[in-house]
Specification:
- This is TOMM leader peptide-binding protein.
- It comes from Cryobacterium psychrophilum.
- InterPro entries: Bacteriocin_synth_cyclodeHase (IPR022291).
- By secondary structure, this protein is an alpha+beta fold.
- The chain folds into 2 domains: about 80 residues, Outer Surface Protein A, domain 3; about 190 residues, Rossmann fold.
- About 35% of the residues lie in helices and about 20% in strands.
- It has 10 helices and 13 strands.
- The strands form 3 sheets. Strands 8-7-9-10-11-12-13 form a 7-stranded mixed beta sheet, with helices on both faces.
- The longest helix is centred in the C-terminal third of the chain and has 19 residues.
- The C terminus is likely disordered.
């Protein structure tokens, strides 16, 4: 096991025999550091196996018990490099892959940021037999249904980024089988404006003037951080975008949050367990996932 003091945390001396790891939020303070233990600390800053730390301590005159106690005290500030970038089998762990479905300045900037964050931008070519971890759908005014139902059928989480004439909406993050899908969002829009389907047909191929360099930079940064948090397990789910979206005003920069619910008329809602399926439907009924139902509902 290779152990190392977290290189992101500064190590400073409070007194000649007291060390502190971390400045803004001190992670650990260790008192009674001898010259012999200082040799062990030097080794831990570079990274050594546990046996190496014990050897450094012994050669400098520290007992095994003293070295073990030091390592226990430093535990909150240590990182384990025993299997860097590998799984239990010793093979390289696959990095999360993200599909950026869209073109334009936001898509280009987002692709670069994802790579800087260690995520694979698989927009150009997704390796065979590989399921993306997340799809980001970038569009203007309205997304064509097949762009999002494609990912719903494959049970791939997907996040829409939609520019309009007043701003841009990020979300909701669709986790297939949980929460509202993008068909739900469209039905919600129809409830507010019955003429929306007619308007949407006219807007499918129109470009919004709000995808400016300034706004596309902000959007790309927000989405890249969200993807990193989601796929890096720093947040199991970005709660603010599960069943919700962020709307950025293009003129003022004001950020508002909207809540979206699963729509009663959308087929992504599973039948309640205690609901009886009518006879004619039951005759041809086969079990299916909620994502199958939503995708087939929209063709």
């Amino acid at each position: 096991m290779l152990i190392q003091l977290n290189p992101r945390l500064p190590l400073v001396w409070r007194t000649p025999d007291t060390i502190q790891v971390g400045i803004d939020r001190p992670v650990v303070v260790v008192t009674g550091v001898t010259v012999a233990l200082e040799a062990v600390i030097t080794g831990l800053r570079a990274g050594v196996p546990l046996s190496g730390a014990l050897l450094l301590g012994r050669e400098a005159g520290a007992s095994a018990a003293a070295v073990t106690r030091l390592i226990e005290q430093l535990a909150p500030a240590l990182v384990d490099h025993s299997t860097p970038g590998t799984g239990a089998s010793g093979t390289s762990a696959a990095r999360p892959t993200v599909i950026v479905d869209g073109v334009g300045p936001t898509a280009e900037r987002l692709g670069g940021l994802l790579q800087e964050l260690g995520l694979v931008d698989a927009s150009a070519a997704l390796p065979a037999n590989t399921q993306p971890s997340l799809a980001v759908l970038i569009g203007h005014y309205v997304l064509q249904p097949d762009r999002h139902t494609h990912w719903l059928r494959r049970d791939v989480p997907h996040l829409p980024v939609i520019y309009g004439d007043a701003g841009v909406r990020i979300g909701p993050l669709v986790q297939p089988g949980s929460g509202p899908c993008l068909v739900c969002v469209e039905l919600e829009h129809v409830d507010l404006d019955p003429a929306w389907p007619a308007l949407a047909c006219q807007l499918v191929r129109r470009a919004a003037a709000t995808e400016t360099p300034r706004l596309s930079i902000e959007v790309a940064a927000r989405v890249a951080v969200l993807a990193h948090d989601l796929l890096g397990n720093e947040a199991e789910h970005p709660a603010s975008l599960l069943g919700g979206s962020v709307v950025i005003d293009a003129a003022t920069g004001e950020v508002r949050r909207r809540v979206h619910l699963a729509h009663a008329r959308c087929a992504c809602r599973a039948l309640p367990e205690n609901e009886t399926v009518p006879g004619p439907i039951a005759a041809g009924f086969r079990p299916s996932t909620s994502s199958d139902r939503a995708a087939s509902w929209h063709g």
